[in-house]
Amino acid sequence: MSAVKIVAIVLIAAGILGLVYGKFVYTKETHSTKLGALELLVKDRETVNVPAWVGVGAIVVGGVLLLIPRKKS
User: Fold this and answer.
1) Which helix H or strand E contains 53, and what residues bound it?
2) CB-CB contact of 43 with 30 (8 Å)
3) pLDDT of 51-70, one tens digit each?
4) Fewest beta carbons less than 10 Å away: which of 14, 17, 36, 54?
């Protein structure tokens, strides 16, 4: 399987996941303080919304990459 087909399949899968879930959440550490043996951490939870057009675009681009014939060298 060529690298172009792998990229196309990954794009299609990412597009479908983007449409199904619509967002993803991650946690990042923003502040850290150490007072002797006591360590204080502040973690913020961030949410990133994935627009529907990005998911559809990834599916379309992946489909085009799968359907375009490649020259054999």
Assistant:
1) helix 52-67
2) yes
3) 999 999 999 999 999 998 77
4) 36
